[in-house]
Amino acid sequence: MTRSSPREVSLLLQAWRGGDQEALDRLIPLVHRELHRLAHIYMTRERVDHTLQTTALVNEAYLRLVDANTVDWQGRAHFFAIAANLMRRILVDFARSRGYRKRGGDRKEVSLDEALLVSPDADPDLVKIDDALQALAEFDPRKAKVVELRFFGGLDLDETAEVLKVSRDTVKRDWRLARVWMYSEMTGSNGHAS
Questions:
Q1: pLDDT tens figures, 109-129
Q2: Is 76 in contact with 6 (CB distance < 8 Å)?
Q3: Are the CB atoms for 13 and 73 separated by under 8 Å?
Q4: Which of 34, 42, 45 is nearest to 1 (CA)?
Q5: 48, 58, 66, 104 - which has most CB atoms within 10 Å?
Q6: SS (H, E, C) 156-182
Q7: What is the mean pLDDT of the chain?
Q8: How far apart are CA 48 and CA 104, in angstroms?
Q9: Neighbour-count burial for 170-184, b at 16+ CB within 10 Å, e otherwise
């Protein structure tokens, strides 16, 4: 698989937005490995008996991304942030359609710790996380975006800062505060969630 530079990906994204279909054809092989890695991270967090496979998640994200050619791509990090958001939405929609939340499932406590980004043992309830994330977005949209980019997108502090056009220290502070807020929201220790 070809290793691409962030600049090369950014240039192809801009060309694709401008209507160059060949740019999309060149872009897909360059981003495929990273999209598959993101999808794999998501799928390792799912229930063992989850019927959606990693490749299916990547394919569904591709289909949705192809329809997003009017996005004003800011670069590679922005592209992967949107891809991560799409994958999260796909999995949450899938979980909601399966009625997993209503049945209770095999829920486990979820820690929004950075280690969870690579933990193969985690199995969070994405619907519960998504609900907390939506509540946070109503309260503080930037902190919600930080969680989405870091936790779901796997972006580091610098990449998150680049996408949000804020400083690394701001991202670090937002990440710390958002994790505390979401933990409280998900555990009900703030008096709002059950």
A1: 444 443 333 333 334 577 788
A2: yes
A3: yes
A4: 34
A5: 58
A6: CHHHHHHHHCCCHHHHHHHHHHHHHHH
A7: 76
A8: 15
A9: bbeebbeebbebbbe
Kindly state the tokens that stand for 182. Answer: 């979401």
Q: Read off the DSSP letter of residue 151.
A: I
Q: Where are the chain's structural domains?
A: 6-187
pLDDT, one tens digit per residue, over 136-179 is 999 899 999 999 888 877 788 998 898 899 999 999 999 999 99
pLDDT digit string, tens, across residues 27-66: 888 888 888 887 877 777 666 666 677 788 888 887 888 7
**Rounded CA separation 140/63 (Å):** 30
Selection from 99, 121, 116 nearest residue 48 by Cα: 121
CB–CB of 93/126 below 8 Å?
A: no
Comparison of pLDDT for 19 and 190, the residue scoring more: 19
Q: Token pair for residue 155?
A: 């972006």
Beta carbons of 81 and 93 less than 8 angstroms apart: no
Question: CA-to-CA distance for 125 and 39, rounded, in angstroms?
Answer: 16
Burial classification of residue 58, based on how many CB atoms lie within 10 Å of its CB (0-12 exposed, 13-18 middle, 19 or more buried): buried
Count of Cβ atoms closer than 10 Å to residue 115 Cβ = 8
